[in-house]
Amino acid sequence: MQPRTPLVLCVLLSQVLLLTSAEDLDCTPGFQQKVFHINQPAEFIEDQSILNLTFSDCKGNDKLRYEVSSPYFKVNSDGGLVALRNITAVGKTLFVHARTPHAEDMAELVIVGGRDIQGSLQDIFKFARTSPVPRQKRSIVVSPILIPENQRQPFPRDVGKVVDSDRPERSKFRLTGKGVDQEPKGIFRINENTGSVSVTRTLDREVIAVYQLFVETTDVNGKTLEGPVPLEVIVIDQNDNRPIFREGPYIGHVMEGSPTGTTVMRMTAFDADDPATDNALLRYNIRQQTPDKPSPNMFYIDPEKGDIVTVVSPALLDRETLENPKYELIIEAQDMAGLDVGLTGTATATIMIDDKNDHSPKFTKKEFQATVEEGAVGVIVNLTVEDKDDPTTGAWRAAYTIINGNPGQSFEIHTNPQTNEGMLSVVKPLDYEISAFHTLLIKVENEDPLVPDVSYGPSSTATVHITVLDVNEGPVFYPDPMMVTRQENISVGSVLLTVNATDPDSLQHQTIRYSVYKDPAGWLNINPINGTVDTTAVLDRESPFVDNSVYTALFLAIDSGNPPATGTGTLLITLEDVNDNAPFIYPTVAEVCDDAKNLSVVILGASDKDLHPNTDPFKFEIHKQAVPDKVWKISKINNTHALVSLLQNLNKANYNLPIMVTDSGKPPMTNITDLRVQVCSCRNSKVDCNAAGALRFSLPSLLLLSLFSLACL
């Protein structure tokens, strides 16, 4: 058997070319000339022939149809290319697509001198302008299939054909790839006997733009004889998507007074169509401006870039004279390079005219008047200003300063954030007797600096005249507080001091009377005429009304005004200690076991309300312990404590032991306190003091009790 000659495959779509050796075919399907060059005229005239195209499918051109890439042109049945209307610019390239049931091809018209308004389909379709790929040694040539998207019924529709010039009998064609046996499945299929490739449904370029398929021939058992050969199906874009603005809201800002041509913002739309064609070539324009004053054309948009710029003079862009500092523009984006047949989409651009500090604040009047009573504090007057700038900015907010007339810092001024007024306040009470009038010079500025060509003028300063009103002020004690030092326990009626109060109202001749206001212990009296303070009771440093040896009393000084005014003075009496308190012991009850080996009973402490040196060291003694009854002992531990102990064990009972304690004062003071000692039974870790029996007295106590009984007989 002779070796089989190689398989020849050729896919026909955008062009169908039956490729075999030159001696096999005399006719080549397609355009006889595939590239034309024509000069850009001043204008393409409606129905005037531009050139003639010659196409043949080598089978009589039955059902021949032409499609032109521009909607402003058509190809007549005789191949003549004409314009549908007068038009000046169509771009640099036109493409003409010719198709019959047997073949199709693409011709390119290069317009010399034309504007670049669309991309070359050569880049999109990867389609060579010359004849298909030259034959290789194995005679396999593949050209891409071009199918317009959005085709209508009927389906399936033949779109190409695979040719094998030397195919063995009973061999079959097989088509594979995404769109055939891979998702999305079933879009393309091939006639296994004739090699015709067909599409079964409408294609959408925006979903899939290119399908990569593979063609091979197989024997009756499905074994591959030749291939696979790659077959590329390219979906030709149609203008089926409107431009959309996806990045809104669109808000821009421009400073008032900006120069003409200032860029405000950029608006760009998106078109899902092929970006290399006019289908996605967008042009922008402003459809509407609201408000339309002071000019209906305040802004311009770059048709290609989408940049919005100002087109009015800076004087018209004055925020303070505009009806509304906010403009809304309806922006339209149109594909097909802005031609009438293009699809459109719109969005709203909001442009805010921002304020700059080109107006200084001005006082509403040059002079302000205020009155205030002496001694009072708080706001006395509100200073009003006018400012034409934006109230929400620092170009409007005012800052006030007192520049003269406030040497004592008695006044302060602050800005009311709601009204922008200057609130002038008295912070240190004024004295009518010192000065009845004050004059302040106040300036106002903005928080933000003024623009260079604007400055603060005379209207940015104002004078405030303040009148101080005389009021009846209360008398003032001097000194205050008043302080004296006295020993406690001084005799009743002792004079402590004479208070002194003066009336600040020096221009009024008023008398002053005195009275006691607060005297917690009731120890004091004051002469209402001359202010002499004396005692009405004994002063006691240890009184609960005395704090840290200081007694506090308050006095009133009342003038003769109408109504009378009152002043308050404080007297602090420091009381020196006198040894007038005897010491006392603690505790006064103790317990001890009757069989205790340790005869210590209790540790006693002593305390004294007086101050040192009238307190410790203390002297501890057992008062009048008879010699036969000496079973107790007291021993000094330190200056404030002593140990009471037994000299022998005692029977279970209660005992009263008189303890005498003496302080170190001069003269000293002594106190005798009974210490109750309970002698308890202590057995098996249990202490029982309840059966201690009757109270037992020491021997001296028994003797005294006997003498008392005899005296009563």
TrEMBL record:
Pfam families for the chain: Cadherin, Cadherin_pro
GO molecular function, one term: cadherin binding
Cleavable signal peptide: 1-22
Coiled-coil regions, chain positions: none
A Gene Ontology BP annotation from the UniProt entry: cell-cell adhesion mediated by cadherin
Compartments it resides in: Cell membrane; Cytoplasm
GO cellular component, one term: cytoplasm
Cadherin domain sequence ranges: 147-245, 246-363, 364-477, 478-585, 584-702
Topological relation to the membrane, as annotated: Lipid-anchor; GPI-anchor
Alphabetical UniProt keywords: Calcium, Cell adhesion, Cell membrane, Cleavage on pair of basic residues, Cytoplasm, Glycoprotein, GPI-anchor, Lipoprotein, Membrane, Metal-binding, Repeat, Signal
Subunit details: By contrast to classical cadherins, homodimerization in trans is not mediated by cadherin EC1 domain strand-swapping, but instead through a homophilic adhesive interface which joins two elongated EC1-EC2 domains through a region near their Ca2+-binding sites to form a tetrahedral, X-like shape.
PANTHER family to which the protein is assigned, alphabetical: CADHERIN-13, CADHERIN-23
Protein task: Cadherins are calcium-dependent cell adhesion proteins. They preferentially interact with themselves in a homophilic manner in connecting cells; cadherins may thus contribute to the sorting of heterogeneous cell types. May act as a negative regulator of neural cell growth.
Name of the protein in its database record: Cadherin-13
Organism: Macaca fascicularis (Crab-eating macaque)
Organism phylogeny: Eukaryota, Metazoa, Chordata, Craniata, Vertebrata
